[in-house]
Amino acid sequence: MTPVAPRAASRRAFLGASAAAAVTLVASPRRGTAAPWVRRLPAHDLVIRGGTVLDGRGGPGRVADVAISAGRVAEVAPRVAGQGEQEVDARGLVVAPGFVDIHSHAEGNLEADPRLESAVRQGITTVVVGADGSSSFTGAPDRGFAAWATRVEGYRPAINFAAMVGLGSVRGAVVGEANRPATPDELARMTAMVERALAEGACGASTGLEYAPGAFASAEELVALSRPLAARRLPYASHLRNEDDRLLEAIDEALAVGRGAGCPVQLSHLKQQGRRNWDKLEACVARLAAARAAGVDAWFDVYPYEAYSTGLSNLFPIAALDGGTGAFLARLADPAQAPALRRQVLAKVELLGNWDQVQIASVRAAEDRDAEGKRLGAHAASLGQDPYDVTVGLLQRSGGSVGMLGFGMSEANIDRLLAHPWGMVCSDGGAFAADGPTRRGSPHPRGAGTFPRVLGRFVRERKALSLEEAIPKLTRVPAARVGLGDRGVLAPGMAGDAVVFDPATVADAATFANPFQYPVGIAAVVVNGAIALQGASRSNGGTGRVLRPGAR
What we know:
Blueprint: H1 9-15, E1 24-27, E2 37-40, E3 44-53, E4 62-69, E5 72-77, E6 84-89, E7 94-97, E8 99-101, H2 117-120, E9 124-129, H3 145-154, E10 160-163, E11 165-166, H4 167-174, H5 184-200, E12 205-208, H6 219-230, E13 236-239, H7 247-261, E14 265-267, H8 281-293, E15 298-302, E16 307-311, H9 325-332, H10 338-352, E17 358-362, H11 376-383, H12 387-397, E18 403-407, H13 411-419, E19 423-425, H14 446-461, H15 467-474, H16 476-481, E20 498-501, E21 522-527, E22 530-534, E23 537-538
Parallel strand pairs: 3-6, 3-7, 8-9, 9-10, 11-12, 12-13, 13-14, 14-15, 15-19
Antiparallel strand pairs: 1-2, 3-4, 4-5, 7-20, 16-18, 17-18, 20-21, 21-22, 22-23
């Protein structure tokens, strides 16, 4: 008898010996004849066997098999009878929905390396990009979400992408870099762009109110641009106008935008920056509670690190960036403005503690590459120069494009934010690899460690929250927040995204000194029903796609 052609050999080879059991010979007796041998095709594309399933909906886990076919969960049962073309042995491990990163910058390296290694190896299967007011599309006819989605899928990414429309990008396209109110005509054009982006599939709108040009938008402008979100129940996600001394006023503004627009509010990477602001956590939560009691659908996300990542220009007052990068660099070189700028930067550094609380993450100028990964105070001392003068020089030689890390948050506050019922997890990080074109600079380790760090340090070691409490914050809650109702839960009919990990060993390995280290304890990652990672082995296929709210 001619055997049935096997499915793609490369997929079976990926699992080695376990794939040999995918096609089984069975006896099929026929009356009056000798029983011939026939081949029976596998019942499922993939079966994950015997793990403790935490399905994303909260509550205790249960030992079960998870069957996936045609990119969707087909069955979750104590024992799935049918075999899988591929099978994963998850005995002694946890099986959860693929992690959903609600605030990511993974798009930045997508063209250079669509493997997105540091995201996949964390168990992330979906990222939400277009954060902090900056998106690669605006909703303009020639720069819409649909064209962006086609371009992203053309890269064949390893994971799924959803995207918010950045209100800073929209403002930049219409108003430009100037610090002035939008005219009525400009506001109408911007609102139409937001409408179009949402109609094509954007999953919310974001702001970066510490960055130009988004910082030049008034609260009234933000309300107008957020009104299209209301009917779709998609969030206004805000990097607040201030995250330190004026944090509470910034939260008030974000909540007021939600009230005025009638839309949900997502406080992005909520933090209390600078030791003198650490005790504002209770007041932050109180403001959220009052707004929720008044009908505002308000939540927040948080990453599990004591340092943030931004541009070195963020040490300067936002007014210094009025008119764009060229104008900013001209101000740095103007002797008449230098004393005031120096005073303002020194005040920001004092908030953090000292110049060694600033770490240089990236530069464009080749001559300054040795500064990457170094604390600014120590680097300036090694040069025998004033730290402020070193800061200005770095910015000037790199055309204003210098990345920094700022150490200013409290781990005790992170404990409480992660455990809070209105909180969820984000990385706010990029995606990179330990090899290839994206291994450059000294990025924040959150790009390689956020989700395993929550499970290892904050669940297992610090016991800030239980594993059962943590999983929904990594899966179902962020997925639902941006309208991805078929993600974040392991149940029949839901998307076939999953992560298998060892709760006893899962941990981040990336550090501020060496960010190019992958986490441990992640046994397998499945994206849209296809194995992306098993052990140390990575699939070469890119099965990620662009996701839209409400779509399946």
